[in-house]
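Regression test case RT-17, inverse folding.

Input:
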């Protein structure tokens, strides 16, 4: 088994927009030095009052249908079986969360908060008769914050809707914010050909997306670039232009809610997706016939693009390169200022769908900011040296700097498919000197206490742009509330769609922003 899959999964489980990663580095004396990049800056305190169990504030359509995933696998390799091991990991971020799970196979509920189908399950209400969460004998009357539910089963293809499974297209809604991640692979050839992504809640869907990379780029990892579009509402018209402003004509597909369309390769940089109603979009790249090299990404809609991004993942200690690809949607070239642990400087990204490849230094994170405040987009491929992209490669979308949080959660860090390997690292990136607290198993017990009174096992003070590290696999690594913070921050920028339970609530819990660039506050972090 290749460890990159689990590294990928480890980081993705941690955060919906991926804030933290652990990463390990051997130092003199044989111990592992652990250094931290902090990725995050604001905090949302869960604000759902008691008695509002029927008000569902966070809604998901589980993306990347297994049959379409298999199509991407078979575009890359020839030995792909017809059974997929499908995983959705769910972190409960607020105590007392109740989750409603609606199977797509028998159609969706008219009102998921008032289900009429016997197949719809309700978890966390203490009532076994309407559903028991996976992994439980009895439905708990209240989930503790930090609870992880793993929805994992084998999905035989072609899909028979008579068999109800935990699979893509299912709908899940909750009374408080969830963190949801998606991973999958075919049992043949196994986890060597797999991927994982953070799952976007409907509140963060958009109507305009652009692929920052494409098959017109030379890196072999872009020999295949495809994407999946999933709709939130019936009657969504999606216009796809695989080369954006290029000569290829756009085409339009019609989707109902929970339906997914696969563009099975051929996407070029600047390829666009425009929809009449909100959709989510995932990107799949791969090196054809490499045995095995494929990465998945969650794209952000263009109205959520930023002028500044942070990444915690550097080139590996063995020299296997990590690249950042910066995409410029503007007509004119833009100047990007970068800062890493070892250097700073600037470079130009050509206009009109220009892409710049930046190679990360070893053991360093980075910040990229456009000099003129122009919006751009970026993703990273790690372990992606052109000569060895099949060994460790994985990838992720860069996190806008305003999405950084002070806490994050690893939802599912199995280490390996059977839990026997230590392969679920986490990277953390501070933008300023800080101290990071780690609770390795998320039980909130340990010898150290963070500034919020939460206990953990480890802390280390670090200066800006120093890398991170701590390998910890085969078990969960988790803190609490981190991904909620991201949600809260993003919700601030989109008040129109912000559910009341996630709005600032003066006088009780609400948003609290901690700016780690303000040294006077010296906030500390639990991961
Ligand atoms: Ca249903
Ligand atoms: Ca129940
Ligand atoms: Ca299902
Ligand atoms: Ca075109």
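Golden output:
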């Amino acid at each position: 088994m290749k460890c990159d899959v689990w590294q990928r999964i480890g980081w993705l489980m941690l955060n919906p927009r991926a804030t933290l990663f652990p990463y390990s580095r051997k130092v003199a004396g044989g111990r592992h030095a652990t250094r931290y990049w902090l990725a995050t800056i604001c905090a949302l305190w869960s604000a759902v009052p008691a008695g509002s169990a029927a008000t569902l504030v966070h809604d998901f359509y589980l993306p990347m249908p297994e049959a379409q995933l298999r199509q991407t696998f078979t575009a890359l390799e020839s030995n792909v079986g017809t059974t997929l091991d499908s995983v959705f990991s769910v972190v409960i971020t607020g105590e007392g969360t109740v989750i409603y799970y609606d199977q797509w196979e028998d159609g969706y509920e008219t009102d998921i908060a008032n289900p009429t189908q016997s197949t719809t399950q309700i978890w966390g209400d203490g009532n076994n008769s309407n559903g028991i969460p996976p992994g439980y004998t009895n439905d708990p009357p209240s989930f503790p914050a930090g609870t992880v539910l793993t929805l994992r089963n084998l999905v035989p293809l072609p899909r028979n809707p008579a068999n109800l499974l935990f699979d893509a297209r299912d709908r899940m809604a909750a009374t408080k914010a969830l963190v949801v991640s998606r991973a999958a692979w075919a049992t043949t050839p196994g986890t060597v050909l797999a991927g994982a992504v953070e799952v976007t809640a409907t509140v963060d869907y958009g109507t305009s997306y652009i692929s920052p990379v494409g098959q017109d780029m030379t890196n072999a990892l872009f020999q295949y670039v495809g994407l999946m579009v999933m709709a939130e509402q019936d009657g969504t018209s999606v216009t796809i232009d695989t080369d954006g402003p290029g000569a290829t004509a756009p085409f339009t597909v019609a989707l109902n809610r929970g339906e997914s369309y696969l563009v099975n390769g051929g996407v070029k940089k600047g390829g666009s997706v425009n929809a009449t109603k909100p959709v989510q979009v995932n990107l799949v790249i791969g090196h054809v016939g490499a045995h095995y090299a494929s990465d998945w990404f969650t794209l952000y809609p263009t109205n959520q693009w930023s002028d500044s991004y942070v990444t915690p993942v550097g080139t590996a200690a063995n020299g296997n390169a990590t690249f950042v690809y910066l995409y410029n949607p503007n007509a004119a070239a833009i100047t990007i200022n970068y800062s890493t642990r070892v250097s700073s400087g600037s470079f130009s990204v050509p206009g009109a769908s220009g892409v710049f490849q930046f190679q990360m230094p070893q053991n360093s994170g980075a910040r990229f900011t456009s000099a003129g405040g122009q919006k751009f987009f970026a993703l990273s491929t790690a372990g992606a040296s052109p000569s060895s992209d099949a060994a460790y490669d994985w990838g992720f979308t860069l996190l806008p700097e305003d999405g950084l949080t002070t806490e994050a959660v690893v939802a599912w860090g199995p280490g390996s498919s059977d839990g026997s390997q230590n392969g679920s690292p986490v990277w953390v990136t501070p933008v300023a000197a800080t101290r990071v607290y780690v609770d390795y198993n998320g039980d909130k017990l340990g010898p150290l206490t963070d500034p919020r009174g939460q206990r953990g096992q480890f802390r280390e003070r670090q200066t800006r742009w120093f890398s991170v590290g701590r390998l910890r696999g085969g078990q969960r690594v988790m803190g609490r509330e981190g991904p909620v913070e991201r949600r809260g921050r993003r919700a601030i920028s989109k008040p129109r769609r912000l559910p009341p339970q996630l709005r600032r609530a003066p006088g009780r819990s609400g948003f609290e922003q901690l700016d780690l660039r303000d040294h006077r506050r010296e906030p500390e972090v639990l991961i």
